[in-house]
Amino acid sequence: MSVHRFEADRINNKSVSLESYKGKVMLIVNTASKCKFTPQFDDLQKLYEQHKDNNFEILGFPCNQFGEQEPGGNEEAAAFCKLNYGVNFPIFAKVNVNGPEEHPLFQYLKNQAPFRGFDENNFNEKLLKMMIFDKNPEWLVGNEIKWNFTKFLIDQEGRVIKRYEPTDEFSAISADIAKLVQHESVS
């Protein structure tokens, strides 16, 4: 089984089969335009520019489930990314990533790459955990996506390789992408 069996809507509501990304390494990210982590669009765009010529793609999925930080429509979300961060990787239609209306792709991603737990030695993760406890304590348990800018690394065959939390360093993500595009294993 792979992510290639899923479909997702682009911002124009036209469905796209993720099979069209077969042979590419992907980073699938739930995003938001009004989040503490929104500046990560800069880092995501840099990753995209760095690796796009090596069969790499980033797929952005706006989500309004975390503090209502993506309140606008699909076009507004995509325009924000382009105008403020120069994003030119694909932005898809808004989705839910947790709960009864979650997109099947994200249910699959979470099952394939479970939540690793919070690193209590990481100050930012401690803050994130406290914020989630305050706003959405039900997401503290299990494999639920904890907040915006959770990332999933997918190999060329559509297998989920790794999950990154919003607080993970981009240098580690970039190194893992570099290994995959060179057909090396990621630990």
TrEMBL record:
Keyword Kinase attributed: no
Gene3D superfamilies the UniProt entry points to: Glutaredoxin
What keyword terms does UniProt attach to this protein?
Oxidoreductase, Peroxidase
Q: GO terms for biological process?
A: cellular response to oxidative stress
Q: Which residues form the active site?
A: C35
Instruction: Identify the CDD domains for this entry.
Output: GSH_Peroxidase (cd00340)
- Which molecular-function annotations from GO does this UniProt entry contain? peroxidase activity
Coiled-coil annotation: which residues?
none
Q: Does the keyword Oxidoreductase apply?
A: yes
Q: Which family is this protein grouped under? A: Belongs to the glutathione peroxidase family.
Q: What is this protein called?
A: Glutathione peroxidase
Organism from which the protein derives = Schinkia azotoformans LMG 9581
